[in-house]
Write a structure and sequence with these properties.
Layout: H1 8-14, H2 16-21, H3 35-51, H4 60-71, H5 80-120, E1 126-128, E2 134-139, E3 151-160, E4 165-168, H6 169-172, E5 176-179, H7 185-191, E6 199-204, E7 225-235
Antiparallel strand pairs: 1-2, 2-6, 3-4, 3-5, 3-7, 6-7
Helix pairs in contact: 1-3
């Protein structure tokens, strides 16, 4: 996989006039009256936003020279072997930076989770189970709670501690069916404490959810999950 941002077409369009003329950029901002100027400006902004996240500071002069050489079909000023070495080194730096960010985020999430759960355990109506799951009855239901081998039909909304919603059956306008044996431990335990027709709130510690790995981009490492759940029906 090529770790260099794949922006070749945008780069070429963004600085087409500069490459063809072989001149330095004008010291004052260009006019943005023609369509070509406007789209080139947008390309430049997108590229700049991407490069701002690079773990290696971008040298604008070298950047522009590389563009000129590519547009004029000149030979690379780096040999093929050196290009490959640079790409490998850049990939390693990207992975190192990603690892650093994830470690910092995991530590932050773990700290915020511990602080929140300690405060929340004394909130009115909140019950903390032996596993550390916290549950609050918003509206009590009736009938029997599901067992470990059952399936349930529920409406639910999932969010992070900061309120960011990452999943919702309400948004899809259709309840979901889950097998208790196939969901995260916090969900399985929580659902077995719920009765159909009720409404409940769960605070699921990361160790009962997705742990240090997280789940995709939406759920980071050591993320505490908050769910509002309305059990509709137990399916045996």
């Amino acid at each position: 996989m090529n770790p260099i941002p794949r922006r070749a077409a945008a780069l070429a369009a963004a600085l087409l006039l500069l490459a063809c003329a072989g001149e330095s950029p004008a010291p004052r901002p260009p006019e943005l009256s023609r369509f070509e100027q406007k789209i080139s400006y947008l390309f430049g902004r997108e590229i700049g936003q991407g490069l701002r996240e690079s773990p290696v500071p971008v040298d604008l002069e070298a950047f522009q020279q590389g563009l000129r050489d590519a547009m004029s079909q000149s030979a690379s000023r780096l040999g093929a072997e050196e290009e490959q070495q640079v790409r490998i080194a850049f990939s390693a730096k990207m992975q190192e930076e990603q690892s650093r960010r994830l470690t910092a985020l995991a530590e932050k999430n773990a700290r915020e989770e511990a602080e929140f759960l300690e405060r929340n355990r004394s909130a009115p109506g909140v019950v903390t189970t032996e596993s550390g799951l916290q549950i609050q009855v918003l509206r009590e239901g009736s009938g029997n709670e599901p067992k470990a081998g059952d399936r349930v039909r529920v409406h639910y909304r999932g969010s992070l501690l900061d309120g960011t919603e990452f999943d919702s059956s309400y948004a899809r306008e259709e309840p979901a069916v889950f097998e208790l044996a196939g969901v995260i431990p916090g969900w399985s335990e929580g659902l077995q404490r719920m009765k159909p027709g009720g409404k409940y709130r769960l605070w699921i510690p990361s160790r009962l959810a997705y742990g240090a790995e997280g789940a995709g981009r939406a759920i980071g490492p050591n993320a505490l999950l908050v769910f509002e759940v309305e059990p509709i029906e137990v399916l045996h």
